Amino acid sequence: MSQALRVGIAGLGTVGASVIRLLDRQSQALAARSGRSITVTGVSARDRSRERGVDVAGIDWFDDPVSLARSDKIDLFVELIGGDEGPARASIEAALASGKSVVTANKALLAKHGMSLARLAEEKNVALAFEASVAGGIPIVKTLREGLAGNSIERVYGSLNGTCNYILSRMELEGLSFKDCLADAQRLGYAEADPTFDIGGFDTAHKLAILTSLAFGTAIDAEAVHVEGIESITLADLKSADELGYRIKLLGVAQRTAGGIEQRVHPTMVPKSSAIAQVMGVTNAVTIDADAVKELTLVGPGAGGDATASAVVADIADIAKGIRSAPFGLPVSALEAAARIPVQRHEGGYYIRLTVHDRPGAAAAIATRMAERHISLESIMQRNPPARRGAPPSDKPVPVVLITYATSEGTIRQALEAVLADGYIAEKPQVIRIERE
Ligand code: HSE
Q1: Domains and CATH numbers, the chain
Q2: Which residues form the pocket of ligand 1, taking CB atoms under 6 Å from any ligand atom?
Q3: Considering only Cβ atoms within 10 Å of each terminal Cβ, which end of the chain, N or C, has fewer?
């Protein structure tokens, strides 16, 4: 058997502790599969005295992760600190610069600095591996980079944030408020330290930026991702979606279009029959449309210590075996610049919830403004409680929900401005994009 692979781990939170436990529990199987044993020889974390449920007594302790990254007592550096700058970036750069392979779960850092880090890894002929950065335990990086190498990919879309899926699922199934569901997600440890990263769609955008590069051979460009969060989704939207045969999910979508690869994160209506609609709670799902394989959906745990550690350990095992792929599937110089496509150019179906003054002519005016712009309606729904006999017509605003066939976002926004100008609308319209199978 070859020499042991000596691993240094920086960051001993839930994931770091789980990685140490998993490497220990699977040490024999990993050694057999890799042809060498894997040993943790150095660790670094902020607080040495914290109880973590793992014994690090026999492992060299480094107060500074950069010193661990440079130490000649390790061959491979595992970064589980988090954050898109600071010690995470400094220690990864130090490890790569000193010729060590790196494994990281840090999606925010990769979304911002993935290209420069991949370039550095290439220059030094070492690996930069990040399976755990997207969708936790789902092996989506390997699937896109290696498993689907014989395909041309048309679209990748996923429910990539467990916190959002948990909130939307509980709101839909239990009729609970957004605020209560978020508080539960935080209590259960699903949410990021700052939950606006989750509910504002930024965590999904970081993950999507990585998937787009792997799927389409483009340079990571997180600024090119159009981002909307789930804060505006109401119980009324979830109920209407249900009645119309849809579910609402926060999706990250990367899609080949005539103008380039569109990248967007937003609440999305998906048909209830679609695979992604079945995935409830904290679980993640990713669907890939590709020419040879057609449609492929991967479902699994997107967060949590053991699930994320499973992905980290898979990368460590690859490096132990000597497997070193170009981090984003191609040399950095061969990655194309990502297109920046304004969301106004997006084409698809739309759900529109209007709050309408219930007067004669309101429905006709809405339909006219849509027809003037060649927007075709798939369905239109107005549900008022039945009026009592003899009661005068009420002027209380009522919800009117429209589903359109495919049109452009610019056209929808123009039509809604015209509807607003007609004076029948009492509140800002709710607009949710539809993603079809
Ligand atoms: N906060 C993330 C989520 C954790 O809710 O999915 C994994 O990135």
Answers
A1: 2-133 (3.40.50.720), 147-301 (3.30.360.10), 345-434 (3.30.70.260)
A2: 136, 161-163, 190-192, 198, 203, 302-303
A3: N
* Radius of gyration (C-alpha) of the chain in whole angstroms: 25
The ligand 1 atom nearest the CA atom of 107: 8
Of 170, 192, 284, the residue with max ligand 1 atoms within 8 A of its CB, to mutate for a pocket test, comes to: 192
Tokens for 299, please give them: 């479902």
Average pLDDT score, the chain: 94
Token digits of residue 432 = 């949710």
Q: Using one digit for the tens of pLDDT, what is the confidence trace for 249-288?
A: 999 999 999 999 999 999 999 999 999 999 999 999 999 9
In the block, tokens 């408020």 appear at: 177
Cα separation values, 76 from 43, 127, 163, 315, Å: 12, 9, 31, 11
Instruction: State yes or no: pLDDT of 1 exceeds 70.
Output: no
Q: Are strands 38-44 and 5-10 parallel, antiparallel or unpaired?
A: parallel
Give the model's pLDDT for residue 194: 86
If you measure from the C-alpha of residue 203 to the centroid of ligand 1, how many angstroms do you get, rounded to a whole number?
Answer: 7
